[in-house]
Design goal:
About 30% of the residues lie in helices and about 25% in strands. It is α/β, with parallel strands linked by helices. It folds into 2 domains: about 1-150 and about 290-340, Quinone Oxidoreductase, Chain A, domain 1, CATH 3.90.180.10; about 150-285, NAD(P)-binding Rossmann-like Domain (Rossmann fold, 3-Layer(aba) Sandwich), CATH 3.40.50. The strands form 4 sheets. Strands 3, 5, 6, 9, 10, 17 and 18 form a 7-stranded mixed β-sheet that branches. The longest helix has 13 residues, at about 290-305. The radius of gyration is 20 Å and the shape is globular. The model has no long low-confidence stretch (mean pLDDT about 95).
Length: about 350
C-alpha cells in the first residue's frame, strides 16, 4: 500500500509499504478514506517528537472497517468510523473517567511498532474502546467528520478547562486549527463575546465566520494585550492554543481576577509560569491533551445534525502522493490544516 513516511526533519516521503494486518484479537483494520495532518505530525516534521527515519506518520483519520479481530464486538466490517488520535481500552479507571489519553494500554498512531494514519490502511488496536461508528449516510461526506479526530475535541477541552459558559467573555490566543475550533466550542457553550488574537488575516476571517465577535491581528504581546483590554476590559475565560511563552503571558495579561485559563497548545517554547500571579489574582489554569474519545459521540451527533461545521479549517486538499506538499504548506503557514483524500 502507499503510505507517508517520516524520513527526517522537513522530509516526508510516500512509499510502498507492507499493509498492516490483524495482530491481536481486539484489532481492527480500517481502510482510510480521509486523513489530516495534525499538530503532532507537524512537530515531528520540525524535528521534535523522537520519530526515527522510516516511521509511519499521521494520527487523524476517518475510514471504513475492512477486517475485525475475533474479539471485537462494537464495530463491524463496512462500518464508517472516526478515530481519535490515540487508542484506548475503554475499561480502565482512566477510560471510565473520560481520560482515555492516560489509558495504560493506550498509544498513538505512528509510535514505534504501529502504523501511521496517512496510508491506505491502518491497524487500530483496542478497537472497541477506540473507534466511534458514524452513520453510513456520511459516506462520501467524510471530510465533515475529520475535525472530530482532534481539532474539535481540543477546542472543546480547552473551553471546558477555561470554564466557558453562558454569558462569559472569552479570548482565544492562537489562530490555528485548535484555536479556530475553540471559537465554535465557546459559542456552543454560550459565551457572549469571543475575541481571537492571531497572526494571520485569512485565519482571523475564518474565526469571524465561526462566530468571533472581534479579532486582533498582532505579533506583539504588548500591543495585543492593549487591544484586548481596550475592547473587553479583561475577560472571564482565556483559551491558550499556541503553546508558547508569549501566548501564556498574553493569557495572564487579559484574564480577569477570578477568571480561568484553559490550554491545549502543545508546550514547545514555555520558559516558566509565575504561580504568584495565579495565586494573587485567583486565576485557575487547566488543560492538557484532549481526551477526544470522551467527547466524540456527543460532537459527532452535532456534526451529523449540521449543528457543528468546522470544514473551513481543512483549507488544503491533497492526495496521498502530494502529502509532503501539505506538510510544507502548513509549515510555511500557507494552510491551516491539510486534508489527505484517498
Amino acid at each position: 500500500m502507499r503510505a507517508a513516511r517520516y524520513e527526517g526533519p522537513g522530509n516526508i516521503r510516500v512509499a510502498d509499504v507492507v499493509p498492516p494486518k490483524i495482530e491481536d484479537d481486539t484489532d481492527v483494520l480500517v481502510r482510510v478514506t480521509n486523513a489530516a495532518v495534525g499538530v503532532p505530525d507537524m512537530w515531528a516534521y520540525r524535528g521534535f517528537g523522537g520519530y526515527e527515519p522510516g516511521a509511519g506518520i499521521g494520527q487523524e483519520f476517518v475510514g471504513v472497517v475492512h477486517e475485525v479481530g475475533k474479539d471485537v464486538r462494537r464495530v463491524r466490517v463496512g462500518d464508517l468510523v472516526v478515530s481519535p488520535s490515540t487508542w484506548s481500552c475503554g475499561r480502565c479507571d482512566y477510560c471510565r473517567a473520560g481520560l482515555q489519553t492516560s489509558c495504560g494500554e493506550g498509544g498513538y498512531y505512528g509510535e514505534p511498532g504501529s502504523y501511521g494514519a496517512q496510508g491506505e490502511f491502518v491497524r487500530v488496536p483496542l478497537a472497541d474502546g477506540t473507534l466511534v461508528v458514524a452513520p453510513n449516510s456520511m459516506l462520501g461526506d467524510e471530510m465533515r467528520l475529520l475535525p472530530l479526530a482532534a481539532a474539535l475535541p481540543a477546542g472543546h477541552h480547552a473551553a471546558l478547562a477555561a470554564k466557558v459558559a453562558h454569558a462569559r467573555t472569552v479570548t482565544i490566543v492562537g489562530d490555528g486549527a485548535y484555536g479556530l475550533s475553540a471559537v465554535l466550542m465557546a459559542r456552543r457553550l454560550g459565551a457572549t463575546d469571543v475575541l481571537v488574537v492571531g497572526h494571520h488575516e485569512d485565519r482571523l476571517e475564518v474565526a469571524s465566520e465561526f462566530g468571533a465577535s472581534a479579532v486582533v491581528l498582532s505579533r506583539d504581546i504588548g500591543e495585543a494585550s492593549e487591544k484586548v483590554m481596550s475592547l473587553t476590559g479583561g475577560v472571564d475565560s482565556v483559551i491558550e492554543a499556541v503553546g508558547e511563552q508569549s501566548a501564556l503571558d498574553l493569557a495572564l495579561a487579559v484574564v480577569k481576577d477570578g477568571g480561568a485559563i484553559g490550554y491545549v497548545g502543545v508546550p514547545h517554547a514555555v520558559d516558566g509560569l509565575d504561580l504568584g500571579v495565579l495565586y494573587g489574582h485567583n486565576v485557575s489554569l487547566a488543560g492538557g491533551i484532549a481526551p477526544a474519545r470522551a467527547y466524540l459521540p456527543m460532537l459527532l451527533q452535532e456534526v451529523v445534525d449540521g449543528k457543528l461545521d468546522a470544514d473551513a479549517i481543512l483549507d488544503l486538499t491533497v492526495g496521498i502522493e502530494e502529502v509532503a506538499d501539505g506538510y510544507a504548506m502548513m509549515d510555511d503557514r500557507l494552510a491551516i490544516k491539510a486534508h489527505v483524500q484517498f
